[in-house]
Amino acid sequence: MNSTILEISERPDIKIQTVHSDLCCRYGVDLDVMRLDQIDEELSGNKWFKLKYNLIHAFENDYKRILSFGGYYSNHLHALAAAGKRFGFETIGVVRGEDPLKYGPTLQDISDYGMRLKYISRASYRDKTDSRLLSSLNAEFGDFYLVPEGGSNTLGVKGCKEIVSDLWEEPSRKPDYIVMGCGTGATLAGVVLGAQGRCKVFGISALKGAQYLHQNVLDLISGYSEYEGAEPFAFNNSWQIFHDYHFGGFAKLTPDLVRFMDAFSTATDLPIEPVYVGKALYAVHDLIREGIIPSGSRVLLIHTGGLQGVRGMEPLMQKLRTRFV
Ligand SMILES: Cc1ncc(COP(=O)(O)O)c(C=O)c1O
Predict the structure, then answer these.
(1) pLDDT in tens, 279-294
(2) Could you tell me the distance, in angstroms and rounded to a whole number, from the CA of residue 278 to the centre of ligand 1?
(3) For the chain, how far is it from start to end, CA to CA, in angstroms?
């Protein structure tokens, strides 16, 4: 391994910050936030962990080129493009939709990092795992290492398992609940494997009607067990996905959510993005109110990063703020 790729194989310094919100204080809940957003300026959040073993695998197998999929605001493509620049891989991003006339901040960064972009229709994007699409991409770009959308594969899960590997070293901080936003479920699968049933793990779906996520997580867990040659053990009673905190769908926001995030950030100084982290935080507060997270619990929210995406969401957030003045 060369020294640059070695950088990602070392464990980053992860801070856990205790935050105080009125509601948590009222219900006697301790809320800690694991600041994955702070581990790296570009490879931030869960992306570090999902990409880690994929990048090492690509390097060790002498791939020069990595291809992946995402939308216009994809945190995943953003991180992969940055990683390609840093570690010397050529990167290709297959983007859902037409080439926009004007790039938003995420696409602009991605293209500045040197990722080549290929736009495909939404219909073709749905077939992103189809061998015909992959062969045509192969014919167009040459040999590449494929990282699936969201970095959601066995190596992504292997990295995410490490997110919580230090957590039980300090008994006073041992959580009763770990909560995080969910897109593909790879981060949740990794954290469930890392937690090994020592606490409850809750995923908050960022998508509407994504009941299939449960099976995704089960498949990711069993894929990882197979890879490790271990008995498949899904820690079934220790985790759950909540589907009522999507606020209308992926990347959809409401005035209520924006009001909550603004108040929370002002009170705690915690920077949050609305697509995953804001919704997960809102859910934590609601689950406390509902008694699903009981008084006296210690909760660890995983801040999965995504702050680069706030730039693209700011106009919508601003518009929604004017709805409640
Ligand atoms: C900031 C952020 N949080 C959470 C997630 C959800 O992660 P996963 O797809 O592993 O469920 C993503 C998507 O990768 C993300 O960008």
Answers:
(1) 999 999 999 999 999 9
(2) 12
(3) 56
> Which two structure tokens, joined as six digits, stand for 229?
């040659």
CATH topology of 3-42+154-324 equal to that of 46-151?
A: yes
Q: Where are the domains of the chain?
A: 3-42+154-324, 46-151
Cβ of 84 closer than 6 Å to ligand 1, yes or no, is: no
Taking the CA of residue 277 as reference, the ligand 1 atom at the shortest distance is 3
Give 325 Cα–ligand 1 centroid separation in angstroms: 32
Closest CA to 196 of 230, 155, 239, 159: 239
Residue type, 32: D
Q: Is the CB of 156 under 6 A from ligand 1?
A: no
Say yes or no: domain 3-42+154-324 is CATH 3.40.50.1100.
yes
- Quick: pLDDT tens for 142-170: 999 999 999 999 999 999 999 999 999 88
User: pTM surpassing 0.85?
Assistant: yes
